[in-house]
Write a structure and sequence with these properties.
There is one protein chain. The chain has five helices and nine strands; from the N terminus they run H-E-H-E-E-E-H-E-E-E-H-E-E-H. By secondary structure, it is α+β, with helices and mostly antiparallel strands. The strands form two sheets. Strands 2-8-7-4-5 form a five-stranded mixed β-sheet. The structure holds 2-acetamido-2-deoxy-beta-D-glucopyranose (NAG) (2 copies). One 2-acetamido-2-deoxy-beta-D-glucopyranose (NAG) binds next to loops. This is Early nodulin-like protein. Belongs to the early nodulin-like (ENODL) family. One of its GO terms (cellular component) is plasma membrane. It is found in: Cell membrane.
Length: 187
């Protein structure tokens, strides 16, 4: 391997490291599950955090018992598990935000969804532009309770909460994985 190649690899690695986002574990230590009745809802938790492009959500659950559906606002509100945009049931789902938008996740089990195992995440266009932090209004069809965004999204607080993961894991491990995965194509 020439020094030149090593240099290219190193630059590549550094570039990806900078671009790597924060990983948020949904549900904290409980993982993706029906929240306790007195715990903060997933969407309340999400509203306390600030998500940007490149950040990711980690859903941990038993693949036999649960799954994650990416849905539209209508399916989110009605817990319609038969209409989804994407479907994950691997038990360890990492969903990376590649654009700014509202992302609606529900449990693949209708019953669990009705028990509030559902989550809306608003991904901001640019974290440096504070005026753009106010979330876009939900589509008119999404009339049921919008999560309480207090205008501006707060920095994640250090307070641990039963249902809210504050774990901010830099996506370093996945970055290394990505680089190693790319190696066979480089050589
Ligand atoms: C779920 O969504 C699909 C597609 O939009 C629709 O055809 C179906 O009637 C919906 N089911 C329920 C129970 O609302
Ligand atoms: C910041 O946000 C405002 C309002 O959304 C927009 O008009 C402006 O172009 C943005 N600036 C940058 C640098 O993105």
């Amino acid at each position: 391997m020439s020094n030149y190649l090593i240099l290219i690899l190193l630059s590549f690695f550094m570039l990806i490291s900078i671009a790597a986002g924060t990983q948020f574990k949904v549900g904290g230590s409980n993982g993706w599950s029906v929240p306790d009745t007195n715990a903060m809802s997933y969407s309340q938790w999400a509203a306390k955090n600030r998500f940007k492009i490149g950040d990711s959500l980690l859903f941990v659950y038993l693949p036999d018992e649960d799954s994650v559906l990416l849905v539209n606002a209508d399916a989110y509100n009605s817990c319609n598990t038969s209409s989804f945009v994407d479907f994950f049931n691997d038990g360890n789902t990492v969903f990376t935000f590649t654009r700014s938008s509202h992302f609606y996740f529900i449990s693949g089990k209708k019953d669990y969804c009705h028990k509030n195992e559902k989550l809306v995440v608003v991904v901001m266009a640019d974290r440096s532009n504070r005026s753009s932090l106010a979330p876009a209004p939900l589509p008119a069809s999404a009339s049921p309770p919008p999560p309480p965004y207090g205008g501006e999204v707060e920095e994640p607080t250090a307070q641990p909460s039963p249902n809210g993961a504050s774990s901010r894991v830099i996506g370093m491990v996945s970055t290394i994985g990505a680089v190693l995965g790319a190696l066979p194509y480089v050589f």
